[in-house]
Design brief:
The chain is α/β, with parallel strands linked by helices. It is about 45% helix and about 10% strand.
């Protein structure tokens, strides 16, 4: 089962248009850059993001002119179910630019952002959901089978992050017009580095399927050449925060033992009795288990993190 991944051909032109049309922003921010007196980021553009994935990229684009702060920076916190605190609300209210993942992943952030703020929505900037919806409409019209819901974990699509950093530079340039070129130049540098990471992922040139405890790394694994064999019913149960039915779990375990499945992709930030059984089954079947996380581990930036993920996939497939 392919979860939320549509055909990649022609995507560059679609996303190019998306950068121009892009995210519908409601007006301009009425705030000034970090007008909170005495704060660590005083005098800088205040960017508040949902997770450290986007604060890292915003820091790279904004350089020394930006103070980027994530609401969630711990692997112990789940963005899907996170409940914002009054401190979070105040932080977002004072932000010059707000960055969320979108697609329902970090709904708390979407709810906190006001209509007058500069907002970067990564799902919207990526164009992936529009593309997926168009692809699904075509499939339904042609009598094709619908494979599942949109995969909102777009930060695992390195190409999409190039669109996101462009959008960040655009919004920072609107807040701080005199440094707009600085932000564009930084974004161009980051995009060049992301292009190198994307080439590394695509260079894996794998074949076969994978089972995933969650759709988290789906874009990266599919760019590496693999296809998703996870039963849709298993994915839906996990997304709903419940265990899969015994029959569904048995089907998943059976697929994991089959010759077409090359690895188990495991979200190490979420563990249940059923995911533990999948890990054990993968070990018994001599299938590699590749762990992924939703947030960037300490000491790495986004490019280094995705490079490590690609290296682990390539290494696992060589076993």
């Amino acid at each position: 089962m392919t979860v939320g991944r549509s055909v990649r051909k022609g995507r560059t032109s679609v996303l190019g248009a998306g950068v121009v049309v892009g995210l519908a922003l409601a007006g301009c921010s009425s705030g000034t850059a970090s007008d909170a007196q005495g704060s660590p980021g005083a005098g800088k553009i205040a960017v508040v993001t949902s997770t450290n994935v986007y604060s890292d990229l915003a820091s790279q684009v904004g350089g020394d002119k930006v103070s980027a702060t994530p609401v969630i920076d711990s692997s112990a916190q789940d963005p899907h179910s996170y409940e914002a605190t009054p401190q979070d609300r105040l932080k977002v209210e004072k932000a010059d630019v707000v960055v969320c993942n979108g697609g329902g992943y970090d709904q708390f952030m979407t709810d906190l952002a006001s209509d007058g703020q500069h907002v970067v929505d990564a799902v919207e900037a990526s164009g992936l959901q529009r593309e997926e919806d168009a692809h699904d409409d075509h499939d339904h019209g042609s009598g094709h089978h619908h494979h599942g819901d949109f995969n909102e974990h777009v930060w695992y699509d390195v190409e999409s992050m190039q669109m996101v950093v462009d959008r960040m530079a655009e919004q920072l340039g609107q807040v701080d017009q005199q440094n707009a070129e600085y932000y564009r130049d930084n974004a161009a540098r980051v995009k060049n580095e992301l292009g190198t990471v994307e080439q590394k992922v695509e260079g894996i040139k794998a074949s076969g399927g994978y089972i995933a405890t969650e759709p988290l790394p789906g874009y990266l694994l599919q760019d590496a050449g693999l296809h998703d064999e996870t039963p849709q019913a298993f994915t839906e149960a996990i997304d709903a925060g419940s265990d899969a039915a015994p029959a569904v779990l048995n089907d998943t375990l059976g697929l994991l033992k089959g010759s077409d499945v090359k690895l188990l992709a495991l979200n190490k930030q979420t563990s249940t009795g059923q995911t533990d059984r999948l890990r054990s089954a993968a070990g018994a079947a001599a299938k590699p288990v590749v762990e992924f996380t939703e947030t960037i581990p300490d000491g790495l930036n986004y490019q280094q993190w995705m490079t490590q993920n690609a290296d682990r996939v390539a290494h696992g497939l060589q076993k």
